[in-house]
Amino acid sequence: MKTLERLIANKLLQIKAIKLQPANPFTWASGWKSPIYCDNRKTLSYPLIRSTIKIELARIICEKYPETTAIAGVATGAIAQGALVADLLGLPFVYIRSAPKDHGLENLIEGELKPDAKVVIIEDLVSTGGSSLKAVRAVRNFGCEVVGMVAIFTYGFELSETNFKDAKVPLTTLSNYNAVIEEALRTDYITENDVTILQEWRKDPANWDPINS
Q1: Is there a contact between 28 and 34 (Cβ–Cβ < 8 Å)?
Q2: Which of 40, 66, 130, 173 could covalently link to 154 via disulfide, CB atoms 3.0 to 4.6 Å apart?
Q3: Are 87 and 39 in contact, with CB atoms under 8 Å apart?
């Protein structure tokens, strides 16, 4: 496992941005039962972790997408971190709403994005890829090129990987589900039995039954 993936996983667990509760599952907004919950907005409250994430996201953009001319953050979780990255890189920043405003100019993209811009989209979390790729479509519909997406964390669902491949969007994340499980096991946050449950959940999260796991 790559060092950075484990480092970020450790920090996310440490500040409870990621929580693992195989014995007492969470209920997501979608209605799914899940042994994991992730809220990466918590990282903004910890200056050292916030800076680490900002620097690593910016490094990836410099290395993989040197042609980038603008940064976009997906509302609401990636607005602050996206702005921090854009500031570090000295690039324009916009953010993408989940839906257009119902008043005024009815903007979907907030800020000034120039047509033909080469955009990297920042996400805090990737699950199925639905909301992330909706943001991609908004930028493309505006006449800009999405050169890639970078995110703090991904669950690594097979559906997500398929969706990104079909949309032809390269995705790079600082950490991932496997890294979190390995780091949680190493630090005795979870047991080997918990690992089995966590791995079973990811195979079919929409139909996972915690009672029979």
Answers
A1: yes
A2: 173
A3: no
